[in-house]
Amino acid sequence: MDQEKGRKPMSPQDQKQIQKNWGFLRENLRDHITLIRDALFAKMVLNTVDKAKIDKVIKTDDDDTAIDELLKILMRSDDGSFEKFVCCLKECGFHHMVTELCSGKFKAV
């Protein structure tokens, strides 16, 4: 979802977590792109335009390219989208991915 006026972009820390885990996310989500896309759409992280872009890539390219498109769109999303992404992963049963994705992100106080 491209930034709307007045909305904060995804934090650099959250973007870095996605970038750092790009290969891991690609490898583990390539067979589940529509499941994750639909979950992110339901949580309003993706809008209809984003969903259509991803669908077009799914139809014309390979799964890795589709995941790349989804992750690029996710990184351009609003602040709070990373947390919604993590929630989607949990709800879809990808608990091992949440553990890996969030390792080192949250420091114990």
From TrEMBL:
SUPFAM superfamilies recorded for this chain? DEATH domain
* CDD domains membership: CARD
Name the record gives this protein: CARD domain-containing protein
Instruction: List the top taxonomic levels of the source.
Output: Eukaryota, Metazoa, Spiralia, Lophotrochozoa, Mollusca
